Amino acid sequence: MQLIAHRGASGLAPENTLAAFRLALELGAEALELDVHQAADKELVVIHDDDLLRTAGRREMVRDLAWPELRRFDVGAWFDTRFKGEIVPGLDEVFGLVGRRAEIHVEVKAGSGRYPGIEGRLVEFLRRRKALKSCVVSSFDHKALFVLRGLEPRLRLGYLLGPTPLEAAWQEMEELRAESLNLGIKQVTSARVAAGHRRRHKILVYTVNDARQARRLKDMGVDGIFSNFPRLLEKDA
Ligand code: G3P
Ligand code: MG
Q: What separation, in Å, do the N-terminal and C-terminal C-alpha atoms of the chain show?
């Protein structure tokens, strides 16, 4: 079972920062997950929420600020003062840091409905970075997944189920040629894992921070978990 470092090593460093991704790599993570939004100047930026309240104590929305403005905010100190000075990284910076050392799961937080043109910008970015093979793009925004698939047949796609009924999801996943169904921990059952495997999809589960729970999922046949702790699957963790 694969472990994907959720928002980097976000149990040990501030989520979605270079510090969190660097630490995940140091701890041996072979795959990382990050969240993407689009800034006012169309830059693709790595942050979970659509505003800065939780991580920077600011009321501004990401989409209203150009990246140079966004970069002025500290998104590290809320986690621990040791991380003061961490900023919202650009997607390009994270890819620069990671290189070929890990697979990257890029979660697009919203498609063109909120961020006009974001799908095309992401596809261009992945082509330029030659990262179509080493990267999986996932989203709860299934419309965005269809736009992405229309733009690039080689893209690897992950389908975040959210509230979509499972039967509708299987149908959409087939049309999308999505490689994985990504389920919340409360959504996973052995029957769903088996049904996904019959359809030749991987089942990935988020967010798993408990070692015993991880072992149960492994026994169920789950293919991968998103965890805030990159060493969760190691024997003594
Ligand atoms: O991609 C898995 C997981 O990251 C989805 O939820 O809210 O942590 O982005 P969230
Ligand atoms: Mg995410």
A: 16
Q: Residue 235: its pLDDT value, please?
A: 67
Strand pairing report for 31-38 and 44-46: antiparallel
- Point out the residues that are catalytic: 6, 48
pTM as predicted: 0.97
Amino acid making up residue 109: K
Structural domain of 98: 2-236
**CA dihedral sign, ordered 210, 106, 50, 110:** negative
pLDDT recorded at residue 237:
56
Say if ligand 1 is within 6 A of residue 182 CB.
Answer: yes
**Angle at the Cα of 213 (from 207 to 214), degrees rounded to 5?**
70
Number of H helices, E strands in the chain: 9, 9
Q: Dig out the tokens for 3 from the structure.
A: 């472990």
**37: CATH:** 3.20.20.190
User: Any idea how long the chain is?
Assistant: 237
Domain tally, the chain: 1
pLDDT of the residue at 28? 97
**Do 17 and 87 meet the contact criterion of CB atoms below 8 Å apart?**
yes
**73 Cα to the center of ligand 1, angstroms:** 23
Residues of the chain with pLDDT under 50: none
Query: What 3-state DSSP class applies to 12?
Result: coil
Task: Give nearest CA residue, ligand 1 atom 7.
Answer: 48
On whether the CB atoms of residues 137 and 158 are closer than 8 A, the answer is yes
- Compute the distance between CA of residue 102 and CA of residue 34 in angstroms, rounded to an integer: 12
pLDDT of 157: 98
